[in-house]
Amino acid sequence: MGTGKRGLIATAVAVVCAVTVLAAPGTAFANPTPSPTPSAGRALAAGKDLEAVRKKLDKLYRAAGRATDEYNAAEEKADKQSAEVVELAKKIVKGKEKLRKLKDRAGAAAAAQYRGGGLPPEAHLVLSDTPQDFLDGAGRVREGHHATKGLLGELTRTQEDLEQYAKDASAQWKKLEAGRKAKAAAQKKIEKQIAQAEKLESALQKEEQERLAELEKEAANKAQTAWLDSGILDEIDGKASEQGKKAVQYATAQIGKPYQWGAEGPKTYDCSGLTSQAWISAGRGIPRTSQEQWKRLRHIDIQDMRPGDLIIYFGDASHVAMYIGDGAMVHAPRPGRTVTIAGAGTMPILGVVRPDADTGAN
């Protein structure tokens, strides 16, 4: 194999390796919603208002949840861009190899003309000895003209393709590099929000932490009771599809595993990581983030909800859970918690979407 070929392959490998580094986990494009720096430590020392602390924690974790959704969307986009750059690198390598072969063919044609005394084919035709030689030669000349024209055209097109591939790869590379920096900044913001919440909780005495947990349960129970008192459960009697059953089985099998932002299992999950992986296990690929699940999956009336459907929470679609029947859902709640079953009405419901393949898109 010649040094030119090795150089082309080395170039492609270098591009692919660089893309792999840029697409590595742990970095995101979007800038998550910033959270205010809490001064709850001083407020707590002054008044020990645990309900205010609970609301503050909820605000911090919700902000982290929104940022996590943006991080996940950016990571999914980066994966697609990385794949495109890899394909472009492959096209560039193939294109350069094709160009080399075409140039070799053009060189061979030039060499043949040189061996013919440097005369063009038309001159040889005029010098032919017999009419039959003339006729045979005329056909060959026409064929030669077509072949030469075709070769030059192919050379031009190949060169143009290579130039376009290079432009496209450069553009994608710039996007990936900008995204890598934005992802790194976003990760720091997410971790800062979680650290602020953890610091706020750690400032509590053991008795206060226990009371805070009770307040969280009371708030959830109050919301669930209000939802059930509306009579909505009397209207919900849908049966799970076969795919829905598989998705529910997967999701409930993860109960007890820790929440971790950006995680898709198998040991840890965030909210949309759990729901997307559950449906992948059922043979149905769905969007990675709760916001994209809300945008791209078919919307279902709450009274038509059935096990396997996804419940989208809050006005910004920043949380998602899977309905499992009897007014309950399974979800990955937030940092510091594990995958668990809870009441479907414990948080403000934005709407319900259905991932089943036979339902079409919204």
Helix and strand topology:
Layout: H1 3-22, H2 40-47, H3 50-115, H4 121-126, H5 131-202, H6 206-229, H7 242-253, H8 271-281, H9 290-296, E1 298-300, E2 310-313, E3 319-325, E4 328-331, E5 340-343, E6 349-354
Antiparallel strand pairs: 1-6, 2-3, 2-6, 3-4, 4-5
Descriptive report:
The structure is a single chain. The protein is of the alpha+beta class. It contains nine helices and six strands. It has helices at 3-22, 40-47, 50-115, 121-126, 131-202, 206-229, 242-253, 271-281, 290-296, and strands at 298-300, 310-313, 319-325, 328-331, 340-343, 349-354. A six-stranded antiparallel sheet has the order 1-6-2-3-4-5. Strand 2 (310-313) and strand 3 form a beta hairpin. Helix 7 crosses helix 8 (271-281). Mean pLDDT is 76; it is low at 1-48.
Contiguous helical run count: 9
Q: Can you count the beta strands?
A: 6
Task: Give the SSE order as H and E letters.
Answer: HHHHHHHHHEEEEEE
**Principal-axes shape call:** elongated
Unreliable sequence segments: 1-48
Structural class: alpha+beta
What is the rounded Rg?
32 Å
Largest sheet: 6 strands, antiparallel
Overall mean pLDDT? 76
Percent helix: 55-70%
Strand proportion, as a percent range, falls in 5-15%
Strand order, sheet with most strands: 1-6-2-3-4-5
Distance between the termini: 54 Å
